[in-house]
Amino acid sequence: MLTRVTNNHIASLIYKHTHTNLGRMTELQEQVSTGRRVNSYADDPQAVGLIQRYEQLIEENSQYMDNIGRARTMVVQTDQALLDLVELMRDARDVGRRELNATSTLETSRIGANEMGSLIEAALAITNQSLEGNYIFGGYRTDQRAFVSSGGEIIYQGDQGIMNAQVGPNTDMGVNIPGSELMGSSTSSLYGYSDLAPRLVSSASLSDIGYGAGWEPGSINWTDSNGTPLEVDLSGAGTVQDVIDILNAAGLSAAISADGTGLTVTDPGGGPLTISDPAGGDTALSLGIVGTAADGVVVGNDIRVSPDWTTNLTDIEGLAGGLPLGSIELVLDGTSVVIDLSGAATLDDVKTTFEAAVTAAGLPPLAMELSENSLKIISNNADVFEVREISGDDTARRMGLVGTGAPHRLFDVLQELQDALQSDDKTAIRRALGEMEAIEDHLLQLEMTIGARENLLDWMEGLNMDREFNLHNNLAGVRDADLLRVTSDMKQAEVSYQASLIVSSDMLSMSLFDYL
């Protein structure tokens, strides 16, 4: 049975297939123009949820990267400020050491006090640095100067706040160091002020003199009483006695000075005597014997070796006439302990006896250490302790340990050194220098903390860059189109659409008369 196909039915089919081909071609054209497979919710409802999630993760990761950039700026500036403070503390210690030299006078010491005033102002400038108008050492209180000078004291105006930055999905880190950490540390220290370096001995190695700085092998120049310039080659010397022997063989008279700190060189002709270094050399300087003496006797500078725990107490000039040692009193946590050091023969004996007495008394541990030429006592916490002299017994004073152990103080000790220089108080200068060494160590520990933060930022930046790359790849896999495939499909769709138009035109032009 034949079924008549009406023109309306043919038109409906033509419209349907032509519209379908046009829609497919348009869809592919949109994918080619946008580069995306999913351009609307209708394209792939399931993929839209994934796309939104990936875009949210990418936005969060971008925020982490921004946080890292801002945090790095703060950390780098703090790092530089700490390095500047360490350098400043070293300059201050150099000023103090210079004025402990035997050639210093009240006038030079007061010049040093003026230098300390300038260093204190520089320290204020360093600690009051700001970043985008925010003071970096103010804690949370970044809107005002962290440190101000008031009534002759340096006052901290900030708080102890640590500002955190989220640098990863589960990673927060502190980016600042509050000024309260610069003012003091979490440990207490008492730095001694007595010089416990042993007397210079003839057997001392030249590599150990100058408190470990060693010497510069080479030649020295000297001019005898007749004005004759001479040169002596000391490069073959290995010990202090070798230097003495070579100088004596050259016509001079050399010996260890009476106080045991260095060398004394005498011109048997009666002088004047001048000792210097050839151009480019530092041999005489490193031996401490550069100078001119009208009487023919050049008294050298201090070139002793540093003390160690094996140093015998009898070899220490500062303890001469005060041996055997007596006792000292330690006060900690309200408890007073008398520590008998009379049995000590070496510095190690002093250390062992002291630490054992603290333990036996049930007190928090205290450690005795060597700091350059002096002793120091360190507590692992911020408890304040005190070492006192016992009536009629000057042991604590001779050992340079009379005083209070407390957390290190930045500006206070700078001002105390300035005051000590102003009055030319050698004991106070030594005490301040000891504490300044502790402050320098504290600043270096803070510097290590900042260094660790910089490393963490670098690591997190690399991790976030990898995460961003993977997120974009995952997003592209869900959202983006395969342009090669889409272009090919679009060409096929265009052919199909053009074909449907041609077929439609031919079919709609037919009528019943075409079949007669």
What does this structure look like?
There is one protein chain. By secondary structure, the chain is α+β, with helices and mostly antiparallel strands. The chain has 4 domains: 56-185 and 427-465, f41 fragment of flagellin, N-terminal domain; 219-299, no CATH class; 309-407, Alpha-Beta Plaits, CATH 3.30.70; 483-516. The protein contains 11 helices and 20 strands. A 7-stranded antiparallel β-sheet has the order 16-15-19-20-7-18-17, sandwiched between helices. A 4-stranded antiparallel β-sheet has the order 9-8-12-13. Helix 1 (7-34) packs antiparallel against helix 11 and helix 2 (45-98) packs antiparallel against helix 3. It is elongated and about 145 Å long. The relative contact order is 0.15.
Distance between the termini: 20 Å
Strand order of the largest sheet: 16-15-19-20-7-18-17
CATH fold field value of the largest domain: f41 fragment of flagellin, N-terminal domain
CATH level-1 class of the largest domain: Mainly Alpha
Number of discrete helical segments: 11
Helix content: 40-55%
Please identify, by name, the CATH architecture of the largest domain: Up-down Bundle
Low-confidence stretches: none
Rg on CA atoms, Å: 41 Å
Shape: elongated
Q: Please indicate the percent range of residues in DSSP E strands (runs of 2 or more).
A: 15-25%
What is the residue-averaged pLDDT? 84
Major beta-sheet overview: 7 strands, antiparallel
The count of β-strands is 20
Class from secondary-structure proportions: alpha+beta
Total individual domains? 4
Write the CATH homologous superfamily of the largest domain: f41 fragment of flagellin, N-terminal domain
